[in-house]
């Protein structure tokens, strides 16, 4: 008698399914690795490089050609000039070669020894160029009637020049200087402090305000939909529009907020909200809360509406007061989504760049880590230092993510 | 707490606070609409509210008609006028008389009616815990509505109004947002100049193109991916569904730097192709995550029936799964569209050529000391209005989309 056993391993059907699954995921995986993983690797590489913004331009040989003198009648002599230069002051260029096509009727009287002429094709082997190398390559020429009639010039065909150069980006010079500079500066720890303040208070604020808003709207009444839509505006509007509006509103000279405060006697002189310590940091945090409370409110509201009514009915029977119902029923039910939201929002606030960049540009004690990346890379023009900051951010985030997955997986099933 | 639990105490305290809240709101509204230097006068408004509160608690249940409430409304208004020596908002009554009368009426009704609602069913004497807490919660609710409406509305009000005024007028009186209607279409001068001289029409078109393309590419990539993660069994499925979100946690600025470098080298900076290479990848993970949450919720039996009837997997997706998940796809599309439309950082770093600007990049260009503020605000309005219109029209999809797949029902 044959005993039937369940098959071991994966059968052909399963294999086909897995193959299909990977096929369907492939576009996403490939694009994600190209745009996310590759840049991440690149940023590690760059952070160990002494590289500035100017080094990004690849060192290329430059050529500019013209005729010195006029050829007005056949037999007139003139000079064909190629002005050659290496625009880089730091990098040499090796094995420079140039190709050009001479116009019809133009004859070179004496060929430069580095050049050869085949038919009308001029090609020159110009050797190695020092940094900031300059040369005027001149050859006497003459033209015949056809050349004059055609009115052509050697510029009609562009000289093709190429050479080998190495960029700091690709060679093997490495340095730890970026990190040394980063950790040595007193600034670094203040940046960390600002980032933590912004992330912690921005996150908690957005959660608490969002919870409050969600409780307001967790009942059906006429106009609930309109209010819900209105309360989402800060989140939906482009950050650039609302950030500039806040800057306008809180301008120390022409802002309405200051005018109102002065008029109501709250303050005796205009407050420079976004321009001075420490209120600038508080203001950007308030902006963060204002802009992102709608997001927490949406998530919390969705969770609230999925809590069954029977629990509250039972509590009513037992005589629980409204505050007791909130404290002993709603809050424990919401704890899961609140903690997930806290972690997500914390990470996103930590990553936030646009808001502070637009509001203060990172001045007046509001420079967070992300703004520091931009500041180092573009304002100070030190790409390497910017990359080093980015690496630090990434490391911190890896720690957060591990924590997130340890924690969140037990909670909301994310 | 027990001292507080008397009807008249609760009435007075809530009335006091509410009177203050309404007075501040009315004063701000009056200042911003007329430019007059209105002040809330809390020392007068709060007692007015408190007295209204006590009177409302005093009123017997049989007097719950309209008349007593109107009377109390009149009393609270009169108290405000009397206590501030006939200047209810701290400005000469002859100035903006009409507006002041309206503001006074709003203050009186805005104070009395809500307090009446909060103190409904509250007896004059001792209160039970329920009655007390219910009153507090109603007060907090009312306060919440006012608070959120004010903080959301004011910035948008300022944005729109500034765009319609001139820089000089605002510098002269930063509070005066009253419009000079005699100017007619001249009010929209900033907008005309933006479209005529700053090519905002083209930026609008570019932004629309980029956002729509982003949506299409994102869907093209994320629908199959989401289906695979949600339905197909393969090794690494669990890891996949988790690690997708990880991508979303990498800060954009960290990626933007190497992308900037790479694009500078291969000449993709300043091109919409470059932008379209990057934007979808920033949205694919979250779209995939939202969609797979929805796909999991669909009954697998329908698809299995399709398979049994001889459809291939891909046909099942095309003919069964996709039609069933149209609402989710609409939500995701909207969300992705919003991200694409609002994206600022990459556009700012990668685009330098004004002929290729997206709208957000165009608005950023207006932030210079040589360009008047109203242009910047007009640009902001132009960037905001389309996304707001889409959002208001499809709000249901949007709110669903934002929470889809992340909250277990």
Question: How would you concisely characterize the structure shown here?
Answer:
Chain A has helices spanning 12-47, 145-150, 177-184, 186-217, 224-236, 239-249, 256-263, 279-305, 310-317, 322-351, 354-359, 369-379, 383-408; strands at 61-68, 77-86, 93-101, 106-108, 115-118, 121-129, 134-143, 160-164. Chain A is α+β, with helices and mostly antiparallel strands and 414 residues long. Chain A folds into two domains: 61-164, Immunoglobulin-like (Sandwich), CATH 2.60.40.290; 177-408, MetI-like (MetI-like fold).
Provide structural commentary.
The complex is a heterodimer of chains A (about 425) and B (about 400). Chain A has about 425 residues and is α+β, with helices and mostly antiparallel strands. Helix content of chain A is about 55%, strand content about 15%. Chain A is elongated. Chain B has 2 domains: about 170 residues, no CATH class; about 210 residues, MetI-like (MetI-like fold, Orthogonal Bundle), CATH 1.10.3720.10. In chain B, α2 crosses α4. The longest helix of chain B is centred in the middle third of the chain and has 35 residues. The chains are: A alpha+beta (about 425), B mainly alpha (about 400). Chains A and B meet through α1, α4, α5, α6 and α7 of A and α1, α5, α6, α8 and α9 of B.
